[in-house]
Amino acid sequence: MSRYDPFPSLPSGPDAGALQSQLANRVELSPLPPGWRRVAGIDLAMGRHSHLGRAAVVVWDRESGTIVEELRHEGPLNVPYRPGFLAYREAPLILECLERLRTLPDLLMCDGQGIAHPRGLGIAAHLGVHTGLSSIGVAKSPLFGRWEHPGLEVGCTSRILAPDGRRIGSVIRSRAGGRPLWVSPGHRCTVADAEAAVLACLRGHRLPEPTHLADRLSKRRPDLIPEEVDPLFPA
DNA sequence: GCGACAG
DNA sequence: ATCTTGTCGC
Ligand SMILES: [Mg+2]
Predict the structure, then answer these.
(1) Across all strands, nucleotide nearest A47 (CA–C1')
(2) According to a count of CB atoms within 10 Å of the terminal CB, is the N or C end of chain A lower?
């Protein structure tokens, strides 16, 4: 992929929330590109002291079920984590990783919320607006909105509603009787398409294949040459 | 003021 | 997110 427009990404401070609200206005809830198949799963792992991070991107083809391209990028994590501001901590490294990607994915599948966020800008929406690409947020736990437990069978879903009653996402049972997923569109995607896309990428694991692969790649220790050590997990 | 709180 | 070994259950 080419280059992304670097724009105001004030890490934290009193304006962090205002900036998210501002960027949320750029979110588009339009249909996913017809025939989408290249899905870029995204995740980031960090060292014990959370000072170093390793972002991973795996472009997975849903038609062939194969990996088109995968890469990762390590670097310092300068912003502390705070609920509601995850993107300020993880997006910088992830964007550097995406800039090095040669394949142009049809959509981004991120580990975290899409628009199901206090100010409508979870990390998936944040990355979508920054790159201009379609994106979906796949979170392992809820953050914002009202929801009900979906049925216990694989594929069962329920709705996530904002305080005003508007639908902002879906709770999806990806494994029979297992803990569900909280899914919401990030950018250039509808609530219905986000739900359908995640269901279409399920391959037996709790997480859809793209994010499952990115999660594993981010945590996999690098191939070490003799005297080298893993920056994230020394010794 | 109290409780909640992605990764 | 990471810290940590075995253990209970399908
Ligand atoms: Mg993650």
Answers:
(1) C2
(2) C
A39-71 per-position pLDDT tens digit: 999 999 999 988 999 999 999 999 999 999 999
Note the CA–C1' distance, A210 to C10, in angstroms.
27
3-state DSSP assignment of residue A38 = strand
Query: Is A111 (CB) below 7 Å from strand C?
Result: yes
d(CA A12, CA A16): 5
Type and span of the H or E element at A53: strand A52-61
Distance in Å from the first CA to the final CA of chain A? 35
Query: What is the complex's ipTM, to 2 decimals?
Result: 0.92
Task: Please name the residue that has the structure tokens 């986000």.
Answer: A194
Question: What is the pTM (predicted TM-score) of this model?
Answer: 0.93
